[in-house]
Specification:
Length: about 280
């Protein structure tokens, strides 16, 4: 447990203030101890993976940020049991090495398995729910197993997103036999935009019959800049930190995008990011 830790280098946006406490936990026992300390001290808790979908406030977080460092991968045929702290990109290569397919789409996507399941991460036509058989969860001191149907997956949603007492420890994932894995990985990497600066990916969800980025682009907001935060010229659903952006800069751009899209298209953009602090 570390005290008064900057969160700027703990998230992919490279934005944010300091956490009162920060704990990197490597075991269920360490997790229990951190949660016990939080309860006894009456501190709020925030579980963080790679911080690839989180906007951290400039004011920081007056509580305990816990990063789960559960990184074991167990293989049995086409089934992998994966610790929640394993990075998506690591899993893509591990599956490739085992000639297991079905997750090539995740190449280049930042984040951990826990975070990806929490938000049902994905790309068009693919998402984490396609792979999940079951999820091992820590719930107020009790370890529970959630079957796929218990996870209540939908577009960028899961039961975990609405029950923060459920902490994802690991996931059992089912793959298919690999076919042209390297070629598919290259194709997905080629589709991903390469940006200069720091990002947390898509800010808004796509909706029925529309892409959020196109709506923002059609409002003429690509390149809109406040401070060191800018709406990306590559994808208007991204906001880029050019180096020294504040969370306030980002919030202002989010507000502008919402307001202009509502005015032009009468559509309420729905955010898919989380906030800390």
């Amino acid at each position: 447990m570390e005290k008064d830790i900057s969160l700027k280098d703990k998230n992919t946006f490279r934005i944010g203030g300091r956490a009162k406490y920060y704990a990197l936990v490597n075991s269920k026992k360490e997790l229990e101890n951190a949660l016990k300390f939080a309860k006894e001290s009456n501190f709020p808790v925030f579980i963080m993976g790679e911080g690839s979908n989180i906007l951290v406030s400039d004011n920081g977080f007056n509580g305990i940020v816990i990063k789960l460092n559960f990184r074991e991968i167990l293989n049995k045929g086409n089934i992998l049991k994966v610790g929640s702290g394993v990075y998506l990109r690591e899993l893509v290569f591990k599956a490739r090495d085992l000639n297991l397919g079905g997750i090539e789409w995740a190449i280049g996507i930042p984040g951990t398995i826990g975070g990806a399941i929490f938000g049902n991460a994905g790309v068009p036509n693919h998402s984490m729910q396609d792979l999940v058989k079951e999820v091992e969860v820590f719930d107020n001191g009790i370890i529970k197993i959630f079957k796929k149907e218990d996870c209540l997956f939908s577009y960028r949603e899961s039961v975990f997103k609405h029950n923060t007492n459920l902490i994802i420890l690991s996931a059992t994932l089912e793959f298919e036999k690999g076919n042209n894995i390297d070629e598919l990985m290259r194709e997905y990497m080629a589709k991903r935009k390469h940006i200069k600066g720091y990002s947390i990916g898509s800010i808004f969800k796509n909706g029925e019959g529309y892409f959020a980025g196109k709506l923002i682009d059609d409002c003429g907001l690509k390149g809109k800049r406040i401070g060191d935060a800018i709406i990306s010229n590559e994808n208007a659903n991204w906001i880029i930190n050019l180096g020294n952006a504040s969370s306030e800069d980002v919030e202002k751009l989010i507000s502008i995008a919402k307001k202009e899209v509502k005015k032009k298209f009468n559509i309420d953009l729905i955010e898919e990011i989380r906030r800390l602090g």
